[in-house]
Amino acid sequence: MMRGLGILVLLVMLAGCGHGGGGEGAGGPARGGKQLPPPEVVVQRVRRGPVTVYREFTAQTVASDSVNIRPQVSGRLLSFSFREGSPVEAGQVLFQIDPTDYQAQVDQALASVSKARADLQQARTQVSVKQAQANLAAAQTDLRKAQLYVDRYKPLAAKQIIPQQQYDDAVSSRDAARAQVVAMQAALQNAQISTRSQIEVAQSQLAAAQAQLTQARTSLGYCTITTPIDGIIGQVQAYPGTVVAPGSDTLVTISRSNPIYVNFNISESDYLNVVYNRSSDRSAGPLPIELILGNGRTYGHTGSITMADRTLNAQTGTLLIRTQFPNPRQILKPGQFARVRIPAVRRDSAILIPQQAVIELQSLETVLLVDDQNRVSSRTITLENAAVGEDFIVASGLEGGERIIVDGTQKVQPGMVCKPIPAGK
User: Fold this and answer.
1) How far apart are the first and last CA of the chain?
2) Residue 281's pLDDT is what?
3) I need a labelling partner for 259 at 20 to 30 A (CA). Which of 28, 82, 185, 413 fits?
4) Number of folded domains in the chain?
5) Confidence grade of residue 243 (pLDDT, cut at 50, 70, 90)
6) Could you tell me the CA-to-CA distances from 243 to 94, 100, 218, 248 in Å, in that order?
7) How far apart are CA 423 and CA 425, in angstroms?
8) Are residues 160 and 210 in the same domain?
9) Structural domain of residue 113, as residue ranges?
10) Distances in whole angstroms, Cα of residue 384 to Cα of each of 20, 53, 360, 397, 408
């Protein structure tokens, strides 16, 4: 845009007002009695047609996933096994903490598990129950024998074949044997209850020992720190020899940046324009998002919107939008500033002029026109706050089809005759 030439054009126009008619309207001023040829300028027709208005917003790249690696156990760092700033894969070993104490805990827990299993096995053998069962069986045998004597002596005593005392002694022995059976039954029952209790205690002790073993093995496993995600690893924050502990500072940070998020804020009016524009176009596919990098180059992949915040920021009146871009070559890094370009409004009939055709003069935008007689005239226009590529959108002042000067405005002034050359020739 020829904004910087506005003052120069003004001076030329003022200088022209100081000359007489003298034929200057038909060309350049006379020199040595000869008329100079008309100055050459490049002209272009004002275009009118359907366009899509794009809007640009300041944006910043954000990692799609980021993990701070912290220690889960206390100990001295022995080593780290990666190159800072390089890609890492999920499961890759990053740090090693001294495992000596944790290996000893595992060995001790293993011994406790072995003892608990042995105690459980001992309880399950039920030695006391078997002994009580044997004692009960012997008592029952004695009772049966005693009952046989009673049954045998009873008719003999009744016939006085044997003394009554012998029969009475047999009955006493039988009653004593019966009491012994009852006692052995009680002893068996007590042995069974005691054995069940011993088994339950042994089982709980085994479960506790196994839990301690699991915890010890988990702690030992924490001595080897691996990455949970694929990504790019950052700068190491703790070096070998450092004593670390749970809750201490981050050892290193890993960011996943393929794909990568790009966040930006959009005004309420722009948001509504995009929404209504998309809803009115039933054939519209996913909204294409372009990314303009810090060096002015357009990123080689288009993005898509993945999230619009649930509410507008009450202080700024803007809505946070998150987009996602492929990043296979890791060109984009988290924290970069860029600009996103999105199609905001569709115009069925818009008037477009090249930016270099506009002259800013005393806060006014003007263009120089060339009529059918190749005479130059000036016209004030109003521009919309939008651009399409290298063109401005004209709100008023032009109708479309006019010839405007896009190069050489400094050579002419209103009222002069010029030699127009179509752009591109």
Assistant:
1) 20
2) 59
3) 82
4) 4
5) very high
6) 16, 14, 19, 10
7) 6
8) yes
9) 102-222
10) 39, 10, 14, 12, 24
